Prior knowledge:
Helix content: 25-40%
CATH class of the largest domain: Alpha Beta
CATH superfamily of the largest domain: Vaccinia Virus protein VP39
Strand content: 15-25%
Shape: globular
CATH architecture of the largest domain: 3-Layer(aba) Sandwich
Radius of gyration: 22 Å
Largest sheet: 7 strands, mixed
Distance between the termini: 25 Å
Number of helices: 13
Order of helices and strands: HEHEEEEHHHHHEHEHEEEEEHEHHEHEE
Structural class: alpha/beta
CATH topology of the largest domain: Rossmann fold
Amino acid sequence: MTSxxxxxxxxxxxxxxxxxxxxxxxxxxxxxxARDVHAAAAASDIPVAGFVVSSxxxxxxxxxxxxxxxxxxxxxxxxxxxIGVFNREAISxxxxxxxxxxxxxxxxxxxPQQYYAALADHLGWRYWLADRTGxxxxxxxxxxxxxxxxxxxxxxxxxxxxxxxLGHLATIPGVxxxxxxxxxxxxLAQTRDPLGxxxxxxxxxxxxxxxxxxxxxxxAWAFEPDGDSFTRLATRARSLRVPTVCVPCGVSLINGTLPxxxxxxxxxxxxxxxxxxxxxVRLDDCLPHAQVGYxxxxxxxxxxxxxxxAEALIRRNRPFLAIAGYHRWDxxxxxxxxxxxxxxxxxxxxxxxAHNGFDAVFYGY
Length: 365
């Protein structure tokens, strides 16, 4: 079998922006992301004529008409259509949306990665969305990561994720992968002895509970800075038969407080424009002598800082690693580069557990 290779990292520069400015565009969807796209387009002097949805009755959103695909105004099919959906759910898979829109008469619906650069100043950070022209400058780094990935599946998912982000694919074949996120079979097969588990970004304890089912746990430490989520985490931890310490803070490369966007459920995060401040700790200082055999990090874009604050722990224990790698566009190479820099000879695999490139995880063992 031919080993997967990187795709061309070049893109077509014309994504229809000039036409959208001239004719006014339509936005597919009318959820929070679609409304944010509307606001960003208006701030960028791009007129929006209305919203398109898959089904339902005509209505109003943000003061503009909303029409279902089967009851479009006569002239709408000729307008540019931008997909205003950005999440991991199956119903939001871009290939399905594009097929439905084309069947309704739209020629070339654009995915968010294809128009994001035009709205970036007003949309701000949106997980892995970025100006696609930046990938070409990272070819050497991406080639290096592809070469480090252990198995063909990892290489294929990695290369296809790049194709998807560049707009060359509307969906990633074989995604979501089978199995449980953070606990793939190839890691579970090697976890024989009782081990300590660190869950950083523990949310409401869902991953902690899965760890209790999947791993031979000796003890666990769960970190969650959002107050509402921490309450649910602590409640769930009490129901588990695993000695667990729940810590109401985030993990970082410092001990202190950082700006925090709260009340967003699993999307609550450390962020410069947060509405609150949250305590954070270095895992190296919080767990200076702990025997940690499995480290899971899913901290909404703060993974590299969290890893930097856990370097001594990782060097001391060489735990299994399950590190989210999709929150920032450059996580794709910076996280595996950081793991490689430890010199611990980690074998590295890559899996994608949700639609539209979300829930991508690097696994080290």
